[in-house]
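Course assignment 3, question 2. Fill in each field.
Student: A.L.
Task: Predict the tertiary structure for the chain below.
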Amino acid sequence: MRASKGYAWFERLEDRRLLAAHVDGNTYPTIQGAVDAANPGDTVTVDAGSYEEQVFITTTGLKIQGAAAGTDARSATRGSNESVIRGTEYDTTNHLRSSSFVIWANDVTIDGFTVQDNNSPGADGSGIVIKAGASGTDILNNIIRNNTSGVSLANQSSTDPAVIQGNLFDSNNNPGLNTGRGIISNGDISGGLLTNVTINNNTFTNNMGFNIDPQNNPEAAVSLEAATSASTQSKISITNNTMTGNGKAVLAFNAKNLTITGNLVTNSQDANSAALRFEGNDNNVTINSNTVTGSLGFAIRIDDKSVNSTGAANSGFTINANNLYGNTLGALRVFQDTYAGTMDATGNWWGSSWGPSGSQPGFGDYTQVDNANVAIWQWLALPSTSAPQLAQTPRALELDALADLKKYRASVTQKDIGTKLDGAITQLTSATSASLWKDDSHLLATSKNVFDLTKQAVATLKGLLSNAAVWNIGLTGNIQRFDQAMRSVAQIALNEAVARNGNASKIKAAQTAFAQGDKDFAGNKYDTCIDDYKNAWANAIIA
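Answer field:
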């Protein structure tokens, strides 16, 4: 209070909010206090704020909910009003912080936190540690970033699954044991048995390791590293995740009944390895409907680097319906004497309508399978639609198909076929000229000749399909890719006309023409459908 001339003024105190955790109607100043007071099956709720503590959970069935509980960590709404837990700084000289949560009990849920800044060099050097013997843990909707590793994974029950879902694992690269792993398990962590785990719908980005470069063994987003076959890892599903810019996406050895499906894997940084790396005694592995692209190494590599004892060969792999393309070293590498039995690698897209290069005669990503019995034919002549798609502009689609056609042309020795291919390539080169495009998704209003040039080229290519000397399946797929590029131009224009509430009659005409294009395409009228898409585009841009 200040006084002047008989008056008093009172200064308003700054609003202060104490951090708090709540359970059973009671409030505690620490998360640990609420957890210790909880009964089995209780829910502990934690206010937004920053908590510097290590929480030990020994009570069965606890649900510990941060301020963002129930909201996917990848949501645009995340990042503010968070319950941030940073562990305890137990070494102030070296600024070492403990893990945030250590889970000893079964059926514990951690939901809606930001878990960060752990850099403990020891065995518990993850943001969240599930101890051996604990089962049924749910790790949901957490931002897990800037730790030594994200989650140390254990689950020993075949009936009580561990679920890791809706999380963001970002830049867990602090120095220490197991640096660079988003999720890490090994025999020491799991207690010798890891089973019944689902890792679904998470994003992993930039998990590589401390001071690691692409030539120096960058680590994996999900790492299953049982050192011996005595440590069992089985029934693990890695599904529908986005993994970008990690050292590797998945590393496994001594694992069986492993399912890897529906994942989008881009820009893996290990130049000497692969996005999906298997290092011995991996059995019954399903790799289906994933897109793996942009890896500095291979998309998939199978060897016995970590498990090379007698009888430790990999076996029982099925690799189907994946998009494996644009990887620096290639798509598939199986090393000498590291695989037993037959591998089914059919029905994949290798980046070319004519299939992979290397062990096969196509022009897509390189494959080398040494003496392994690997079935690759038949492959897909178009990208797999069951795998996640990377968005491509119409012009990029057409340019990719044109580049593939040029590779095929280089392999053709028959003069008459070569002349016709050259003509089509000239027309398609004109159609993809930047001067005809407003941007890579939109034609200039005066550029309907892009459709005409593409149609003429497609008609020429279609005419070659009856020639016995032509690689028919590859060329058909290549033709369809040009059709898809023109369809995409029309689709974008139509979507934009609808979004701006354009002229209803023009939109209807565009929709009718577009539907006819799809009908003609389905009927193998690959040149006619381009006229339909042109009509759809022409109506849409003036709607």
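Instructor remarks: The mean pLDDT is 95. The radius of gyration is 28 Å.
Grade: pending
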